[in-house]
Amino acid sequence: MDHQILQLILTAACVVVLAYFFACAEIHIEGDAGWAINLPTWRIEEHWLLDIFWGGRAMTGYHAWVFPFIAIFFHFPLLFMAQWSLQLEARVLASIMLFWITEDFLWFILNPAFGWKRFHQDHVSWHKNWVCGAPVEYWIFGIFAAALFWYSWR
After folding, report:
1. Is the pLDDT of residue 85 over 80?
2. In sequence order, which ranges of the chain are alpha helices (DSSP H)?
3. For residue 35, how far is the Cα from the chain centroid?
4. What is the DSSP track for 94-113?
5. CB contact at 8 A, 126 and 135
6. Residue 52 pLDDT > 90, yes or no?
7. Which of 56, 51, 52 is nearest to 35 (CA)?
8. Which helix (H) or strand (E) holds 44?
9. Mapping DSSP to helix (H, G, I), strand (E, B) and coil, where does residue 49 land?
10. Residue 38 banded pLDDT, cuts 50, 70, 90
11. What letters, b where the CB count within 10 A reaches 16 and e where it falls short, cover 100-124?
């Protein structure tokens, strides 16, 4: 097997495992109320920037800390090894996108309050736009992640 294909498979597998563990932790944190609805944190429900950058979802204190934490976590290997390049940055960004898509999907599938049958826009108020049975962000970030992974190994 080509070294680059093996590296891609191992990277994607590790990202999926990380997403699984984070989804399980988040299920215990949020329970049946996703997007930090019942957490004791601040919320900004409406702002025009949320429509552009957040898919119309509320900005919460929980997400204000979790999103940068995950970004730093995925950048840590580059900092630890003191190596950076556009290709490595593309791989990190693709991994972050794959992580969030997988983590979000697993949150629904593994959550006893949801499961596969309730993974639908009628039951998920915080994902406002759906295409072909999934939140539009899954498709957008999936395409970007694939392009970034491709670029990172070309």
Report:
1. yes
2. 3-30, 48-53, 61-81, 86-110, 136-152
3. 13
4. HHHHHHHHHHHHHHHHH-TT
5. no
6. no
7. 56
8. strand 43-44
9. helix
10. confident
11. bbbbbbbbbeebeebeeeebeeeeb
> Residue 2 corresponds to which tokens in the numbers above?
């080509």
pTM for this prediction: 0.92
| Residue 112 CB partners (closer than 8 Å, separation 6+) | 32
Q: CA 35 to CA 60: how far, in whole Å?
A: 8
Kindly state the DSSP code that residue 118 receives in the 8-state scheme.
G
> Is residue 138 classed as helix, strand or coil in its secondary structure?
helix
Measure Cα distances from 135 to 1, 28, 107, 131 in Å. Answer: 34, 23, 13, 6
Separation between Cα atoms, residue 135 and residue 126, nearest integer Å: 10
- Per DSSP bridges, beta strands 130-131 and 43-44 are unpaired
SS3 of 62, please? helix
What are 69's two structure tokens? 């934490």
- The model's confidence at residue 62, banded by pLDDT at 50, 70 and 90, is very high
